[in-house]
Specification:
It is a single chain. By secondary structure, this protein is an alpha+beta fold. The protein is about 30% helix and about 25% strand. Strands 21, 24, 25, 26, 27, 28, 29 and 30 form an 8-stranded mixed beta sheet that branches. Helix 6 packs across helix 7. The radius of gyration is 31 Å and the shape is flat. About 5% of the residues have low confidence.
Length: about 550
């Protein structure tokens, strides 16, 4: 691949390496394929050269290379999304446990710096729709021989790079043993916590028994659950297991069973016991399993529910990463919180800017001008509330009381910006400061654009996906950009630094690789009403 600053006369067919400012025509994005028409636009904007990449024989364009690799890496219950900007993301099609072919992963990542593959951890619990891996071609292309080597490695392996083992439905029995001080409340709480764990893995408790903490009666309880068809039995002991000759392991051996392993290098979870009796798997639960916090039992239970074997060697290999109790930031999904790797619904808030002084309109506040019998700002507010957005926040400033009165009956939350006279940026920063903590994206709507429909807002929301490189979403008509703009909350720090009346333009220019444009069949995205003349020509704006 040739990568150089090229004169426009030599750039036909090249790939633009950095965005180019075309003046009134907008920005030409990185990755654009240059043709004669585009090169004329660049020349008209006063540019004589472009920094670009040109493919040579043996080069495979980035998206094609990523797609080829994805096709060779996806195993059972894994799907690949179409590639974009040299990236192909792989997702789980079902909830379960993911297996990573570490040998293949390490081989592929050592072929050439142009090929990178990042995955979640081997044996991670995953949800349906969760991203498992990302394949990224770093430059604009990869060499054919590098891609061929990666696919050859994949074909030589017994297992694909990623496979998801779905959770299976098992008949699960639970036994709680009692001593004199064991309370009904403790047993009920323990079973409730276990039920929540099982539900997270598409299972539930099928049978429950209680008995004295004695090996003979416990053995009878185990046999009873086996006779009822349970293929997995979990035992809450009234006292912790201290030895393989203790009450719970002894009871298992009395049922013609065996102890596979006692103890694990995971804290909390050290005192877990794994055994079996005539094909029925049995777990002697550690005391920490009564808590919803992550512990070693989770790792064993999740694998068993996904139909994966758990051997003594598997358990003894869990020491790396097994120190859990001192890590406050470790996710605790079974306590009702979702881990950072689990998929969640993207939450969007509309930020309605209604603080401006309307200087170009004259003495009247343009936001209060009547359009079809309603104040301009009310039109914008109603469309925002009708959209798919999860929340709407209006920022007021100039003549705040009058603006609020115009929307008093539609219950739109608002915040006052005391610094509104210092420019639009102050309202934008205030809104982002409030919304970015709780919402993934902020859709910035201007109060003087009353003809932007809720359908247009929904189109922008539907395209928002920071993981897919769509962290900033902008509407266009014939390629020309307009408003409103949807911005990921990941840019909150950058927003906090802007000033004056320029809005987020500089932020957008600095992050062109994350900009996604949505072609809209309506000029309303350009129709901001800020002069009396424009207000008089509303009929033209509505078309």
């Amino acid at each position: 691949m040739i990568f150089a600053r090229l004169p426009l006369s030599s750039a036909d067919g090249a790939i633009l390496a950095h965005a180019v400012d075309l003046g009134p025509e907008g920005m030409l994005k990185k990755g654009h394929f240059l043709d004669q028409k585009t090169l004329k636009q660049i020349a008209s904007a006063g540019h004589e050269t472009v920094l670009a990449a040109k493919l040579e024989p043996g080069d495979i364009i980035e998206d094609e290379a990523a797609e080829i690799l994805a096709g060779h890496f996806t195993g059972q219950n894994v799907r690949a999304k179409p590639p974009f900007t040299g990236r192909s993301n792989l997702y789980a099609q079902t909830a379960g446990i993911v297996r990573i072919n570490r040998t293949l992963l390490n081989k592929v990542n050592r072929i050439d710096p142009s090929i990178t593959v990042a995955t979640v951890k081997d044996y991670d619990k995953v949800d349906a729709g969760q991203m498992l891996a990302t394949i990224k071609i770093i430059p604009f292309s990869a060499r054919t021989e590098a891609i061929n080597q990666a696919t050859e490695f994949a074909e030589l392996e017994d297992a694909r790079l990623l496979t998801v083992h779905p959770f299976l439905t098992r008949k699960i029995g639970v036994i709680s043993t009692r001593l004199k001080g064991t309370t009904d409340k403790l047993i009920a709480k323990s079973e409730k916590v276990l039920e929540a764990r099982l539900l997270a893995c598409n299972n539930r408790i099928s049978e429950r028994l209680e008995c004295d903490h004695h090996e003979d009666v416990l053995a009878e309880a185990i046999v009873s659950l086996k006779d009822k068809g349970c293929d997995l039995i979990m035992i809450f002991g009234a006292s912790a297991i201290t030895d393989t000759r203790d009450i719970i392991p002894t009871a298992i051996t009395k049922t013609n069973g065996q102890i596979d392993h006692f103890g694990m290098p995971v804290d909390p979870g050290n005192l877990l016991l794994l055994g079996q009796s005539e094909g029925c798997q049995i777990i002697g639960l550690p005391g920490c399993s009564r808590s919803p916090k992550l512990n070693g039992f989770d790792w064993v239970m999740e694998r068993l529910l996904a139909g994966l074997s758990v051997t003594a060697d598997d358990i003894m290999g869990m020491g790396e990463g097994g120190l859990l109790k001192e890590i406050a930031s470790r996710p605790q999904p079974r306590a009702g919180k979702r881990s950072s790797t689990q998929m969640k619904k993207t939450k969007i808030a509309v930020l309605l800017l209604a603080a401006g002084q309307s200087r170009r309109m004259g003495k009247n506040n343009k936001l209060l001008a009547l359009i079809d019998g309603k104040p301009m700002i009310r039109h914008v507010a109603e469309q925002a509330l009708a959209s798919k957005a999860d929340h709407v926040l209006m920022v007021t400033g100039h003549e705040a009381d009058s603006v609020l009165k115009s929307v008093w009956d539609i219950n739109i939350p608002s915040v006052h910006n005391p610094d509104f006279a210092d420019g639009l940026s102050t309202s934008l920063k205030l809104g982002f400061q409030i919304l970015s903590e709780n919402y993934d994206g902020v859709l910035v709507c201007l109060g003087d654009m009353p003809f932007v429909s809720f359908e247009i807002l929904n189109q922008l929301i539907d395209q928002f996906d920071p993981e897919e490189g769509r962290a900033i979403v902008i509407p266009t008509v014939s390629g020309k950009r307009g408003n409103p703009v949807l911005i990921s909350s990941q840019y909150a720090d950058e927003i906090s630094l802007i000033s004056g009346d320029m809005g987020a333009k500089a932020l957008i220019n600095d992050n062109e690789s994350q900009v996604h444009t949505v072609e809209i069949d309506s000029p309303s995205i350009f129709a901001d009403i800020d002069t009396p003349e424009i207000l008089l020509n509303l009929a033209a704006l509505k078309k």
